[in-house]
Amino acid sequence: DVKVTQSSRYLVKRTGEKVFLECVQDMDHENMFWYRQDPGLGLRLIYFSYDVKMKEKGDIPEGYSVSREKKERFSLILESASTNQTSMYLCASSPLLGLKVNEQFFGPGTRLTVL
Amino acid sequence: KQEVTQIPAALSVPEGENLVLNCSFTDSAIYNLQWFRQDPGKGLTSLLLIQSSQREQTSGRLNASLDKSSGRSTLYIAASQPGDSATYLCAVFSGNQFYFGTGTSLTVIP
To answer: Residues B47, B36: contact at Cβ < 8 Å?
Structure first.
């Protein structure tokens, strides 16, 4: 059974803290994604990575950075957390983007609250 | 840029009813379309994937159809149950990107 796991289901942090969200996939997928999901706004892409040590900005990268040192692990970093980063964060993976058919698999999500 | 729309945003039906959820997209040049289910506070669970060359896919009580030329997909749920209550999202893969709709929140009333 394919699996994407995220390090925490719930996190509460204070303004200004550095926050790490971890995502691991066991499907040997090349691509990994970080989204945030907010009511009324749907899923918005923050960053994605198509290979180890490679990253691309999504639609809303400001205030975030990412790290992909190993193929199976993709980390989202909030350098200095702010209250407007309170959200549900979803990690996903998919096979090589050059394929004509592509399917995403999602983790369970991390609900982050910044106080 | 591809835009994906799901209407209605919310739907409430009595148990046992058959129902249809709609997904439309603006650019017909897609490789595939995927339907997801999301329970409150959880991640997205993949339900069905339809390739651009296919017209429909079935899994149990679920049937998804795709009309690429008109930019539409429907998810048909037969004999709805309270356990089907969730948000249903569609996503298309085109131009090496995934584009998501904002979802339809379904409530099945016992």
So the answer is: yes
